[in-house]
Design goal:
The structure is a single chain. With 254 residues, the chain is mainly beta. The protein is 13% helix and 41% strand. The protein has two domains: 122 residues, Trypsin-like serine proteases (Thrombin, subunit H, Beta Barrel); 97 residues, Beta Barrel (Thrombin, subunit H), CATH 2.40.10.10.
């Protein structure tokens, strides 16, 4: 066993996670080059989805990313809003000349797969959900998020899906990519070349306990697990979920 340094991809969170040693993480290992982009305009793809991707800021100025799954419903990573589930959050929506700030309220979450849902006081275009099979490796993808919490517009990172994994003990699927997720990207969508969401950026692993750099260890929640969580939410079965009525009581409808 060895201890790797796991960094959640939002601007204020790191933790240690114990995993099996990576037999390929020798110091002389050379990076694997990302294949050239497919026959699609990545700029057009980015411009299409950008208006639906938001920057989330907590009362303590931690920053993460979210995106519209419904017109006024935002998906993000739970660790972005952890500790602030009953607070009003600042949500910044991209506009032609910057961003517009609106209020977001957490209406449901599940800590185990690291997912939270926010209701916002605005209307966005929802991003469609796609599919990603175990055979779709390498699959070109585009991760989009507010890297390092910077203002302006979200940044885009091209890469490929390197492996798809299922964790039966948790009944959760995830995948790894060589796209360079950064702090601030947590909760951001991973988009396929058709503009469909196939995952949510969650954390990165860059170095083990021996100080050896680890490559291609960016992890995202698989879209199939996200679909199951959304089904539970709609059925009122989401773990730790809260009711809209409760928030009306807490915030007085304001």
């Amino acid at each position: 066993m060895c201890t790797d340094t796991t960094t959640y991809a939002h601007s204020n969170s790191t933790s240690n996670a114990t995993t099996h040693c990576n037999p390929y993480a020798a110091s002389n290992r050379q990076p694997t080059a990302t294949p050239p982009p497919p026959e699609v305009s990545l700029n057009d793809l980015y411009l299409t989805v950008k208006p639906s991707i938001v920057r989330i800021v907590t009362p303590e100025s931690a920053v993460g990313t979210g995106w519209a799954i419904e017109e006024d419903l935002i998906v993000t990573a739970f660790h972005v809003i952890e500790g602030f589930t009953f607070d009003r959050l600042s949500v910044f929506i991209p506009t032609d000349d910057g961003t517009e700030e609106v209020i977001g309220r957490v209406i449901g979450w599940d800590k185990m797969p690291d997912i939270a849902l926010l209701r916002i006081e605005a209307t966005l275009s929802p991003l469609p959900l796609g599919n990603l099979g175990s055979a779709d490796v390498p699959e070109p993808i585009l991760g989009i998020g507010w890297s390092n919490g910077v203002e302006g517009f979200p940044s885009a990172k091209f890469g490929v899906v390197t492996t798809v994994k299922h964790y039966p003990d948790l009944d959760v699927r995830a995948f790894q990519s060589d796209a360079a997720f950064d702090p601030g990207d947590s909760g951001g969508p991973v988009i396929d070349m058709d503009g469909n969401v196939v995952g949510i950026m969650q954390f990165i692993r860059t170095m083990n306990s021996s100080g050896v750099r680890i490559l291609g260890q960016q992890t995202a929640l698989h879209v199939s697990s996200l679909k199951e969580i959304l089904d539970d939410f709609k059925a009122g079965k989401l773990k730790n979920s809260t009711s809209e009525y409760w928030f009306e009581l807490v915030y007085g409808g304001g």
